[in-house]
Amino acid sequence: MITISEATAEDIKTIQKITYITWPITYGNILSKEQLEYMLDLIYSDEALSSQMEKKEQLFYLILDEESIIGFIGIEHHYKNQAVTKIHKIYLLPETQGKGIGKKAIEEIQKLALENHSTSLLLNVNRFNSALSFYKKIGFEIIDEVNIDIGNGNLMEDYVMEKKL
Q1: CB of 148 within 8 A of CB of 130?
Q2: Ramachandran angles phi, psi of 160, nearest 5°
Q3: pLDDT confidence of residue 1
Q4: What 3 state SS string does 94-138 have?
Q5: Is 67:93 a contact under the CB 8 Å cutoff?
Q6: FRET label pair with 137: which of 80, 99, 105, 127, CA 20 to 30 Å apart?
Q7: What topology does CATH give the domain 3-164?
């Protein structure tokens, strides 16, 4: 059975461990090694994660199976003061992918979103990320294409996807 439970500052090392396992596999063929390292430091440093948690910029949840923590989620309700829940982060350990766990995690996010009066889910996905087909399969639609300058000469080339609730 898959469950999610709210993460705390004590879970930062676990979140980082999952990130450092999943990101090279997910983005290794998409981003340069330098951009990958820059983004990991920018988004997943102790300071960055602590700040996001303390300021409640994102709510973090751990994804658990019966035995262990297998992934994590970072979401924001009322994104840009709208009835939208934004999925900022969702990562599963590679050995757990393709087993329906991502779909179950999204279903849990949907429940949280509805409890917070959201009418849709929103996420960004790299235009070359293989997860794009997964998101389409579970009901997300591309609503925009964006290029986001994240500094240091790095660019995120994303689709913005939405799923109505």
Answers
A1: no
A2: -100, 130
A3: 86
A4: HHHCCCCHHHHHHHHHHHHHHHCCCCEEEEEEECCCCHHHHHHHC
A5: no
A6: 80
A7: Aminopeptidase (3.40.630)
Res. 3: pLDDT tops 90: yes
For residue 42, what are its two tokens? 């920018």
pLDDT at 72 over 90: yes
69 contacts 4 by C-beta, under 8 angstroms = no
What is the DSSP code (8-state) at residue 32?
-
Q: What is d(CA 43, CA 32) in angstroms, rounded to the nearest whole number? A: 16
- Which strands, in side-by-side order, build the sheet including 69-76? 3-6, 59-64, 69-76, 84-92, 120-126, 154-164, 141-151
First to last CA, the chain: 24
pLDDT higher than threshold 90 for residue 154? no
* pLDDT tens digits, one per residue of 28-37: 999 999 999 9
Q: Which residues contact 7 (CB under 8 A, 6 or more apart)?
A: 14, 15, 53, 60, 61, 62, 72
Task: Classify residue 57 as exposed, middle or buried by CB count within 10 Å of its CB (0-12, 13-18, 19+).
Answer: exposed
> If you search the block for the tokens 């393709």, which residue do you land on?
98
